[in-house]
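Lecture notes, part 5. Sequence design as translation. It can be helpful to think of inverse folding as translation between two languages: the language of shapes and the language of residues. The source text, in structure tokens, appears below.
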């Protein structure tokens, strides 16, 4: 389960007011024949993530993840289910996020390494083996990044 921040003005013709319709939406099933709205393609900045077996995401007291800002922000919650028998289960998953106006001295964030998730990276059902290759060229790997991991 991952919470993404969206960028409402990410393409020509998109603006914040067009997002109001999605606030009232029930979401979409990613493997349905229905296409997800183009606006949702801008929801690529991870804010929080959790999966089975994880204890949660805890930051040191001097670090916070910036949310909101001067303009309104939209967020998309993506959840993947494993329910092969199609049992009727009511999901109560979610995040508990503590929000404060007292900014922390350091901003934190999440880094995703690997292939970007997109509709071109769908694993067909019932595959015993599926390979997906991501390439990071020299223009990326020749740069030295300073990361503070905790």
């Amino acid at each position: 389960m991952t919470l993404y921040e969206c960028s409402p003005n990410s393409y020509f013709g998109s603006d914040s007011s067009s997002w109001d319709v999605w606030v009232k939406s029930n979401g979409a099933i990613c493997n349905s024949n229905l296409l997800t709205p183009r606006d949702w393609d801008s929801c690529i900045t991870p804010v929080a993530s959790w999966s089975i077996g994880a204890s949660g995401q805890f930051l040191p007291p001097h670090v916070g993840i910036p949310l909101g800002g001067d303009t309104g922000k939209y967020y998309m919650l993506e959840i993947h289910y494993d329910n092969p028998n199609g049992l009727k289960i009511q999901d109560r998953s979610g995040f508990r996020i503590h929000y404060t106006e007292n900014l922390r001295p350091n901003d934190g964030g999440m880094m995703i390494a690997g292939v970007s998730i997109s509709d071109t990276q769908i694993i067909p059902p019932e595959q015993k083996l599926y390979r997906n290759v991501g390439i990071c060229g020299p223009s990326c790997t020749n740069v030295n990044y300073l990361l503070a991991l905790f």
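The translated text above is only one of many valid answers, since several sequences can fold into similar shapes. DSSP finds two helices and five strands in the chain.
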